[in-house]
Amino acid sequence: MSATVQDAPAPAPAPERKPEPDRPSYLQQVLDSTTTTVVVAILIALGLAAVLVVAADAASQDALSYVFARPADFFEAAWNAIYETYSALFRGAIFDYQAEGARRIRPITETMVSSVPLILAGLGLGIGFRSGLFNIGAQGQVLVGAAAAAYLGFTLDLPVVAHVVVACLGAVVAGGIWAGIAGFLKARTGASEVIVTIMLNSIALYLVSYLLTTAVLRQPGSTRPITPPVGENAMMPLLLGSQFRLHAGFLVALLAAVGVWWLMERSTLGFRFRAVGANQDAARTAGINVQRVFVSVMLVAGGLAGLGGAMQILGTDRTFQAGSAGSIGFDAITVALLGRSRPLGTVLAALLFGALRAGSPLMQTAAGTPIDLVLVIQAVIVLLIAAPPLVRELSVIHWAATLFGYDRKKAAA
Amino acid sequence: MRLELQGITKRFGSLVANDGIDLTFEPGQIHALLGENGAGKSTMMNVLYGLYQPDAGQIVVDGQPRTFAGPGDAMAAGIGMVHQHFMLIPVFTVAENVVLGHEPVVGGSLIDLAEARRRVKAISDRFGFAVDPDALVEDLPVGVQQRVEIIKALSRDAQVLILDEPTAVLTPQETDELIGIMRQLKDAGTSIVFITHKLREVRAVADTISVIRRGKVVGTASPESSEVELASLMVGRSVSLAVEKPAAEPGEATFQVRDLTVLDVHGNAVVDGVSFDVHRGEILAIAGVQGNGQTELTETILGLDTPTAGQLLLDGVDLGGKKVHEVIEAGVGFVPEDRSSDGLIASFSIAENLILDMHRSAPFARAGSLSPARVAENAAHRVDEFDIRVRSVQDAVSTLSGGNQQKVVLAREMSRPLRLFVASQPTRGLDVGSIEFVHKRIVAERDNGTPVVIVSTELDEVLALADRIAVMYRGKIIGIVEGGQTADRDVLGLMMAGVPLEQAREQAAGHHTALAAADAVAQAEEGAGPAPTTDEEGTA
């Protein structure tokens, strides 16, 4: 008998679970960032932008050359530059206290108009993020949606309401199919949705650019790659009369936000989306068809992005060209991340980006601050939000976030 | 080089992964560490390799206490490790992989690839590895990649080589070759720490065997020990796990498995012609050392795997090839082996987890819309019924302890009318109180008239629960015996080592193990008076 028993095993809790909990996925970490960190990120971005404003301001540069002799001069000049920039931004984006009458509220309506496509595309991306799909393809989905809406808008001639509804539905279908390609490829072959959607962005751009040179989209008799204007009945109705550009698309976007909230929080489909996003293995074991969820998520996300594209044409532009989508699809990624992929957060983030977009022209003309400053603000926000593991280690953010009641341990839990 | 671990303790939160481990690795010996998955082997090796810092205890090299802040320190001290999952760069050549991290340099900054090749060739020739230094690692078979890992360790003058589950990825032929390599290395004076849960290999190659269970070294054995002794040590012995259960009243056999065969991705039969019946009101336990096809069997029942051949008849309907949700809707309750990865969604609330596989249907959903009120109401009931300790059912399930998490899984799977209940490792990682509760619920489900299948690698659990016991070995059912008082540990242990039933009975009759003898003594004492059933707590 060669075996010696030193001691029989105690029925103690066995070391079964993995010693270290799995690190949450990158996406999960981004989505878990708290409201406080988001707010702090925005404030820091505005602060950094202020430094750039001062650095670019001629008066401040002059005052800086003798800052040790008369520091007050420098601070006065710097303050003036910052004040002028941000007050112009405010007047351009929210409330123009220097204007007369109804024009004073025009800036806020412009902000709302700019935010409409961002809200819709951002909502779609948020659904993808929460379902574990990193859809980078909103740009292409917006573009095909806009193209479809424009095509249905100028080829058909339908009665009031019907026309705009048909054009919007066409955009939803086009965007949905475009994103659905990526979902289908992921489900069938495991192809990375990141790569496929990026490629589809390029394909969408060159496809519509080509179609704009053919009779399909190009205005007859024109040589410019631009569509004819859509019919009167295909335009979104204006909400505040012809003085303002604010159109019913804003209400559509808000309704879509409520709809997405219901989808994700209350519907069985959204339950499956979230389950797949949080733990694919457990979802599969619970009888959820993960492949089908991939496709469904992309269809819904693409549909929303396509609708966002439609709003750009049917709400404001009226004609479609290759540049119609601007950078909506890419800004929407930031919007969705900034809004932590929740509907309310997405709406607020889209309004912030809409405000930056609406306010920047006045900032340039009134304060002489380069319009690129807005891009810097956006970029810094992206950096602070989208690199959570990096950012959480930056002590300045910690320090600032703690001031605002951010608790690292609570956030980690 | 003589390497000692003295009283190594490593905790993760409340979990004690290593509990006062004392081990000595003598030079020129193959020392096998035997234990089930999760017994704490890997944690211990990670402590030894400097990846974890021990909470107590020390590592002693040739009489000198050492601390390893990282793998670099461990390597410098002459410890090499071959991980279960290779740490190789697939697009690099063998030579590049071997020198990675300590590249020979010429002219100040250029890698001396000729020198790298020479090093690989020297080691390869010395041991007859036949590895081409210029081959790309991704082009090599798994067995050769493993040799590259070994060369990598040897090229850094490793005197102690840790092999973590080295045969898990190898074919039988490659395993034989590896055993040959291990013997050669040993003859050359290298000590080898061989981590595994495969009994045959241990007996074939080890000089010393230490068995680890629940974070402790529970015994040492020589390679002459029989497999049944090793198996008993590994899965443990009489812990007081008795479940008071009335005798089974089996009804008709409503779940019938017929010639079930499942192939893995490489085309090997992981479940090989398995047939058994489960009757209503009966618990069939599937015993066996881990990795003998039990996981694949249960996953095939649930529809996660597709059978290559054979049938899974539930009330006469074949479940084979059906989708998971169809199997669930057919009335199959399933407790997966690994609750944290397959049973629960950590970030979801307790209430949501309690309806995870029932979220489509009434009463929780109508016309695609979930009713939060009903979901919460259901959660309140289940939490009550299963005595799940929660602050709020809206808290994330990850805030619960392991025992309470398992109760959530169990509560969910038992909260609908079942026609078959399948549970894999239902009490893995649970404390005694939770184990008892889970066992009671499983017996209650049986008494409802549900056929129950339990898969467990813990012999104690099998003996406590089973009305009949099927032993699985290499994908086959090697025999089915009656459970309860008549079940013989030695027979089961032999069967778990692959000895067919009749032979096992003969061998067991003539050769009782020390463990069985100890059991007999304990039982006699228990009969005489209130003997300590868990005497180990006194000695620990």
UniProtKB/TrEMBL annotation, chain A:
Segments crossing the lipid bilayer: 36-56, 160-182, 194-212, 244-264, 293-314, 373-391
Subcellular location: Cell membrane
Pfam families with a match to the protein in the record: BPD_transp_2
Matching InterPro entries: ABC_transp_permease
Signal sequence region: none
Keywords: Cell membrane, Membrane, Transmembrane, Transmembrane helix
Keyword hit for Membrane: yes
GO cellular component: plasma membrane
GO molecular function terms listed in the Swiss-Prot or TrEMBL record: transmembrane transporter activity
Membrane-related topology note: Multi-pass membrane protein
Region (Disordered): 1-24
Name of the protein in its database record: ABC transporter permease
Lineage, opening ranks: Bacteria, Bacillati, Actinomycetota, Actinomycetes, Micrococcales
Automatic annotation (TrEMBL), chain B:
Record's keyword annotation contains Transport: yes
Location of region: Disordered: 520-540
Principal location: membrane
Cell compartment(s), UniProt: Cell membrane
Domain of life the protein comes from: Bacteria
Annotated CDD domains: ABC_Carb_Monos_I, ABC_Carb_Monos_II
GO molecular function: ATP binding; ATP hydrolysis activity
Boundaries of every ABC transporter domain copy: 3-239, 255-499
Membrane topology recorded in Swiss-Prot or TrEMBL: Peripheral membrane protein
Keywords of the record: ATP-binding, Cell membrane, Membrane, Nucleotide-binding, Repeat, Translocase, Transport
Pfam families: ABC_tran (PF00005)
InterPro entries: AAA+_ATPase, ABC_carbohydrate_import_ATPase, ABC_transporter-like_ATP-bd, ABC_transporter-like_CS, P-loop_NTPase
SUPFAM superfamilies attached to this UniProt entry: P-loop containing nucleoside triphosphate hydrolases (SSF52540)
Composition bias, Low complexity: 520-529
PANTHER family cross-referenced by the UniProt entry: CARBOHYDRATE TRANSPORT ATP-BINDING PROTEIN MG119-RELATED, GUANOSINE IMPORT ATP-BINDING PROTEIN NUPO
Protein's UniProt name: ABC transporter
Classification lineage: Bacteria, Bacillati, Actinomycetota, Actinomycetes, Micrococcales
